[in-house]
Amino acid sequence: MRPEQPRKLIADNKRARFDYFIEDVYEAGLVLSGTEVKSLRAGRANIAESYASPEAGEVWLINSYIPEYGPASRFNHEPRRKRKLLLRQREINKLFAAVDREGRTVVPLKLYFNDRGMVKLELALAKGKKAHDKRDTTKEREWKREQGRLMRDRG
After folding, report:
1. For residue 115, which phi and psi values (nearest 5 degrees)?
2. How confident is the model at residue 155 (pLDDT cuts 50, 70, 90)?
3. What's the predicted TM-score (pTM) here?
4. Which CATH number characterizes residue 71's domain?
5. Residues 41-92 pLDDT 10s
6. Residues of the domain holding 42
7. Cβ–Cβ contacts within 10 Å for residue 101, how many?
């Protein structure tokens, strides 16, 4: 794994870590039009309800929302169109196998600009949590918060 790169966060899928057990994390590029990049530079996007789907040897980001860029007028893009993800063939094959055989889901975690100014998407191969797993996660998070309060009050 490469050392942490400086990046400007555009969108974060906070719900993904609550709804899924994260197993493997990948970094993918996106095929975007010019108006989409300009809209992202303005910092507006939503990947909360989106997911990645392997189709015909390629991986697509479905249901992500990048709003239209105002000054572009008639040359604008479709806000919820499918967007092709750029991954290595080995990574695509691994995702295909996990989704087909093991019933895993590919969820986006973060959308950001990397140090070179390219738009990147952090994808995760994930397994869905059951209701009791979500309750355990909530209970653990609240206990950590309470521990912090206790340590702060004592120290």
Report:
1. -65, -20
2. low
3. 0.76
4. 2.40.280.10
5. 887 888 888 888 888 888 999 998 888 887 877 777 777 889 899 999 999 8
6. 8-129
7. 8
In a domain, 42, yes or no: yes
Residue 55: what residue type? E
**What's the structural domain count of the chain?**
1
Task: Answer whether residue 46 is part of any domain.
Answer: yes
Residue 29 lies in a domain: yes
CB within 8 Å of 45: residues ≥ 6 apart: 10, 11, 39, 64, 65, 66, 67, 111
The reply to whether 28 falls in a domain is yes
